[in-house]
Amino acid sequence: EPEVTQTPSHQVTQMGQEVILRCVPISNHLYFYWYRQILGQKVEFLVSFYNNEISEKSEIFDDQFSVERPDGSNFTLKIRSTKLEDSAMYFCASSKRGPDGYTFGSGTRLTVV
Amino acid sequence: SQQGEEDPQALSIQEGENATMNCSYKTSINNLQWYRQNSGRGLVHLILIRSNEREKHSGRLRVTLDTSKKSSSLLITASRAADTASYFCATGTNTGNQFYFGTGTSLTVIP
């Protein structure tokens, strides 16, 4: 069964550093998403991406964050100047259209120290 | 906010018993999904139910949706120890493709 692949599974970074989280969505999917889950809390939507541009973003997704689809397969989330409160599990997801085939990756656990 | 709330927050049952979890939400939805998450792991899609559907089954899972009450339930029958996990509902709307997750129910199935 097709999967959304995220790398790395765990990343530790110093506060103030930039991190890039990587995702390979399912190949025939057109919509891409990032969500995050702070430990013990609910999963929160960050951003959706379609046709090479952001289609929607939440209040969490401020200027510190950016997304990119640098080639035909990868979808990245960049966090500039990380803060301690950015420590969370970050999930990438993709879908063909709407909720159909909506698939989450296994997540990247980001720890900011 | 469209975010759902699951009830109960925690549920502990004996293996073989049925587990019922409820989800309530606040605004109109297009669809609702249930996900499972083992501790510290990824989200596993369980079942999608659309707003024009009232009930769906998948194996030992049964999901109902009552749009008039803005609520959904997930029933796991004949539970197993391996069902121990957190279960989340996530609502989708007609505007945008993002999902709004609830706070989750932590299910413990005792062997």
Written account of the structure:
The complex is a heterodimer of chains A (113) and B (111). By secondary structure, chain A is an all-beta fold. Helix content of chain A is 0%, strand content 50%. Chain A has no helices and 11 strands. Chain A has strands at residues 5-7, 10-13, 19-24, 31-37, 43-50, 53-57, 65-68, 75-79, 88-95, 103-104, 108-112. In chain A, strands 2, 4, 5, 6, 9, 10 and 11 form a 7-stranded mixed β-sheet that branches. A 4-stranded antiparallel β-sheet of chain A has the order 1-3-8-7, with no helix packed on it. Chain A starts with a strand and ends with a strand. The mean pLDDT of chain A is 93. Chain B has 111 residues and is mostly beta strands. Chain B contains no helices and 11 strands. In chain B, strands 2, 4, 5, 9, 10 and 11 form a 6-stranded mixed β-sheet that branches. A 5-stranded antiparallel β-sheet of chain B has the order 1-3-8-7-6, with no helix packed on it. Chain B is globular, with a radius of gyration of 13 Å. The interface between A and B is medium-sized, with 25 and 24 residues.
